[in-house]
């Protein structure tokens, strides 16, 4: 569980927080195997016996004062008695994880439904769009072959297709058999027959280890639907071209109901991989994509605002159905046409899944992403709870979870991997703040309760393997992290404790929220105004404002680079880069609304260091493929020229570009050989990602270098209104200076 606060020394009171201009909060990556310093938790058992405070319900931890019969809560100060069991337990402190570390992971007994599902099996279902092309299906076949290699023995796999009909595959017989049911064309229509009546679920779900070859054979039979396949009523003819026939909504609804019948019996969580080649345009859940063209052509309405909200609640409602059925949906959209991900995203992110977008089939990393996603462990049925000491409280919470309807600051996460990150911001509970002289420091406790599926080999000894072969088991665990923070007695101390990457995380969440509610323009204004206010507060705190020619404020000198405070110096660049990111660029600049939604979903789950790379890419130079020259450059042509290095590596998180300058020695091998330092660095970067970055090699003077040059943002105008100039970032700082002067008048 990695936790990163925006400031390691908290503001002393609300006035100090207001005066600092720094967002106050933290990010948490609950299922990360280590903390932010690479320390592992202390593991233990009997999590249900861990004492809890009678007042605030915080868990006992190493910061609590303990005597023979009682303990003081480190969060609220309440004196709590110890049970006889706890007294006996703590008489041997070395055997208790909670006495040895403030970061613990304890096993819990299974209760109720989970106890009945002790040997539930992992279930995976691929839902493939047949209203597509041959190229699309070839890519999906490759991705599913990769998925089959990653699935653990004992897993169950099902294959379903959708178009103007839903196809269920039975791969447990000698040859694959498909049974179809037609989708009603009307938006309010229902399937004429339940999927369970078409094919019993346990006939549909096949054991991977015995049916892999037949699953592969079934995949080979997939063909796109043609006009000959469709009934006369399927789709619509426009200008002689048959459109429509992608009944995605009704297929997903039927699939959730189908799988739900075995939730709690055969499986504890079913993961559905939905592969889409375009917008759902047939039957219930169809989307009207004409709004994209209408908004793009309209002059009076803000397209950046109009295309971000969903046009129907169908997929949001369907996500609730999925959660009730124990189904988590990952959506993989492989398309460059408008698909309205603004409406579709809820089915994935609210059911615990992910949203992926690939603009074409040629260089798609979908197979690698599938393998990577299925190879890493995940937790499910998770509950995340943040508690604080009494002087402050959690304000907003951000991330792909849904809040508990009954309890404050309790979030439910359907499915969570080791990369998924959430954020909270803080407010003071009153006007008093933290005591300046007390030894009672600010405390934060984060509790994460989760379930994991344990493969057979991890819970059997060699003597009894045969009796429970291929039986997975469930384990419920409780992970707790208790943190103590210092307080900053002045702004100097507070600014010195800033974590700029954690600040960026909170800012990104806030501008995404503002964009969704009020449009991209509002998101940009919020970010710009924040930097202006921070710069003004900093200059006032350090008395840095100098006036030229007497008292004319127009000629005042403002320190916009935070020269007195190293921890703040990165922030103007990060704000500038965020304004140049597709997340906040205007529709007129050619930012596709689906790509913007994909960026919002991706950035909302990235941990701070990854988000930093995605917003302000890292540019490194090499003198040869085996020798690094400089570890970091600014993103400008000037940096390239002055470095004199022949090779550059740009890491933009989703893309890795190796660029050879036009002046590079022709004897340098291109592309770099597989056994060199540069390649091994790239491989390490790829391994540590939640998605597979696209790797591009560009030879300056020979290849089109536009993809590389587009990342040199410091020479681009911040609003995208002008041509590339040498004054992009510099003119942005000048604009901030003028805005600060106006603000301070």
Automatic annotation (TrEMBL):
<dbReference type="InterPro" id="IPR036465">
    <property type="entry name" value="vWFA_dom_sf"/>
</dbReference>
<dbReference type="InterPro" id="IPR050550">
    <property type="entry name" value="SEC23_SEC24_subfamily"/>
</dbReference>
<dbReference type="Pfam" id="PF04815">
    <property type="entry name" value="Sec23_helical"/>
</dbReference>
<keyword id="KW-0653">Protein transport</keyword>
<dbReference type="InterPro" id="IPR006896">
    <property type="entry name" value="Sec23/24_trunk_dom"/>
</dbReference>
<comment type="similarity">
    <text>Belongs to the SEC23/SEC24 family. SEC24 subfamily.</text>
</comment>
<dbReference type="InterPro" id="IPR036175">
    <property type="entry name" value="Sec23/24_helical_dom_sf"/>
</dbReference>
<feature type="domain" description="Sec23/Sec24 helical">
    <location>
        <begin position="499"/>
        <end position="611"/>
    </location>
</feature>
<keyword id="KW-0813">Transport</keyword>
<dbReference type="InterPro" id="IPR006900">
    <property type="entry name" value="Sec23/24_helical_dom"/>
</dbReference>
<dbReference type="Pfam" id="PF04811">
    <property type="entry name" value="Sec23_trunk"/>
</dbReference>
<dbReference type="InterPro" id="IPR036174">
    <property type="entry name" value="Znf_Sec23_Sec24_sf"/>
</dbReference>
<protein>
    <recommendedName>
        <fullName>Sec23/sec24 transport family protein</fullName>
    </recommendedName>
</protein>
<feature type="domain" description="Zinc finger Sec23/Sec24-type">
    <location>
        <begin position="51"/>
        <end position="82"/>
    </location>
</feature>
<feature type="domain" description="Sec23/Sec24 trunk">
    <location>
        <begin position="121"/>
        <end position="373"/>
    </location>
</feature>
<dbReference type="InterPro" id="IPR006895">
    <property type="entry name" value="Znf_Sec23_Sec24"/>
</dbReference>
<dbReference type="Pfam" id="PF04810">
    <property type="entry name" value="zf-Sec23_Sec24"/>
</dbReference>
């Amino acid at each position: 569980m990695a936790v990163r606060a925006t400031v390691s020394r908290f503001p002393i009171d609300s006035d100090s927080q207001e005066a600092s201009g720094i967002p106050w909060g933290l990010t948490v990556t609950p299922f990360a195997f280590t903390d932010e310093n690479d320390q592992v938790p202390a593991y233990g058992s009997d999590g249900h016996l861990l004492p809890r405070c009678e007042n605030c319900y915080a868990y006992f931890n190493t910061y609590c004062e303990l005597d023979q019969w009682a303990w003081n809560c480190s969060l609220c100060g309440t004196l709590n008695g110890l049970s006889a069991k706890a007294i006996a337990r703590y008489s041997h402190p070395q055997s208790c994880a909670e006495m040895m570390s403030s970061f613990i992971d304890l096993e819990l007994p299974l209760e109720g439904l989970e106890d009945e599902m002790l040997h539930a099996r992992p279930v995976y279902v691929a839902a493939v769009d047949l209203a597509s092309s041959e190229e699309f299906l070839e890519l999906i076949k490759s991705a599913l072959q990769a998925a089959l290699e990653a699935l653990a023995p004992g897993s169950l796999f099902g294959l379903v297709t959708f178009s103007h009909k839903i196809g269920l595959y039975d791969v447990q017989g000698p040859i694959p058999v498909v049974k179809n049911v037609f989708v009603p064309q009307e938006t309010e229509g229902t399937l004429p027959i339940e999927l369970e009546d078409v094919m019993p679920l346990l006939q549909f779900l096949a054991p991977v280890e015995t049916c892999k070859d037949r699953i592969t054979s079934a995949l080979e039979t997939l063909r796109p639907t043609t006009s000959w396949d469709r009934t006369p009523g399927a789709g619509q003819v426009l200008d002689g071209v048959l459109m429509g026939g992608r009944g995605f909504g009704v297929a997903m609804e039927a699939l959730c109901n189908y799988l739900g019948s075995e939730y709690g019996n055969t499986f504890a969580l079913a993961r559905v991989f939905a592969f889409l080649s375009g917008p759902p345009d047939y039957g219930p859940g169809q989307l009207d994509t004409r709004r994209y063209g209408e908004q793009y052509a309209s002059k009076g309405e803000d397209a950046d605002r109009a295309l971000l909200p969903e046009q129907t609640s169908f997929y949001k409602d369907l996500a609730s159905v999925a959660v009730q059925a124990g189904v988590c949906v990952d959506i993989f959209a492989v398309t460059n046409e408008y698909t309205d991900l603004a409406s579709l995203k809820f089915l994935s992110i609210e059911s615990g899944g992910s949203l992926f977008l690939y603009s074409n089939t040629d260089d798609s990393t979908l197979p690698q992403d599938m393998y990577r996603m299925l190879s890493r462990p995940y937790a499910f049925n998770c509950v995340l709870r943040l508690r604080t000491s009494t002087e402050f409280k959690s304000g907003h919470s951000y991330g792909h979870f849904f809040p508990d309807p009954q309890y404050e600051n309790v979030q439910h996460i359907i499915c969570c991997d080791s990369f998924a990150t959430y954020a909270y911001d803080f407010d003071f509970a009153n006007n008093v703040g933290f005591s300046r002289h007390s030894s009672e420091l600010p405390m934060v406790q984060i509790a994460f309760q989760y379930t994991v599926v344990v493969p057979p080999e991890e819970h059997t000894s060699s003597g009894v393997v045969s009796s429970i072969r291929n039986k997975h088991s469930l384990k419920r665990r409780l992970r707790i992290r208790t943190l103590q923070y210092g307080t900053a007695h002045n702004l100097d101390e507070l600014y010195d404790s800033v974590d700029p990457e954690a600040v960026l995380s909170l800012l990104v969440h806030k501008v995404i929220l503002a964009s969704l509610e009020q449009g991209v323009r509002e998101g940009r204004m919020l970010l710009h105004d924040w930097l202006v206010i921070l710069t003004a507060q900093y200059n006032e705190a350090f008395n840095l404002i100098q006036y030229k020619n007497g008292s004319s404020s127009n000629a005042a000198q403002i320190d916009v680079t935070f020269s007195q405070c190293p921890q703040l110096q990165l922030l103007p660049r990060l704000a500038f880069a965020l304004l140049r990111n597709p997340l906040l660029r205007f529709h007129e600049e050619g930012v596709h609304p689906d790509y913007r939604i994909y960026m919002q979903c991706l950035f909302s789950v990235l941990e701070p260091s990854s988000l930093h790379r995605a917003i302000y890419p890292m540019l490194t130079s090499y003198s040869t493929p085996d020798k690094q020259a400089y570890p970091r450059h600014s993103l400008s042509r000037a940096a390239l020229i002055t470095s004199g290095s022949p090779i550059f590596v740009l890491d933009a998180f989703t893309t890795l570009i190796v660029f050879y300058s036009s002046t590079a020695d022709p004897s340098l091998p291109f592309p770099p050989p597989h056994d060199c330092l540069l390649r091994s660095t790239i491989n390490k970067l790829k391994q540590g990602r939640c998605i597979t970055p696209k790797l591009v090699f560009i030879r300056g003077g020979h290849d089109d270098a536009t993809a590389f040059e587009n990342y040199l943002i410091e020479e681009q105008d911040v609003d995208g209104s002008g041509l590339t100039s040498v004054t992009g970032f510099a003119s942005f700082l000048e604009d901030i200076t003028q805005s600060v002067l106006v603000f301070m008048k």
